[in-house]
Amino acid sequence: MTTATLISTNDFCTWHQVEYTFISSLHEAGLVEITIIDQAEYIPETELQKLERMTRLHHDLDINVAGIGAITHLLERVENMHEEMRTLKNRLRRYEED
Question: What pLDDT score does 95 carry?
């Protein structure tokens, strides 16, 4: 993984005005991935959208890390259910066309 696809945790904290401890807590809870290169911590670009959503939940709605974990889990379940429904609709459509 190159550093071009990584965002420094310091840059993210500065840009979004959050404490590093918030990101560290999310990482400890298993909600966000952090990569360490040469003793510097980075956030993979693939995690950025998820981390920004969590940051908004924390800032705008004052939700703690445990609450963010619960919300994230529920949102993932809803997304999985939507994907399963899409798959089932596509399969059903094949049978209806016959």
Answer: 84
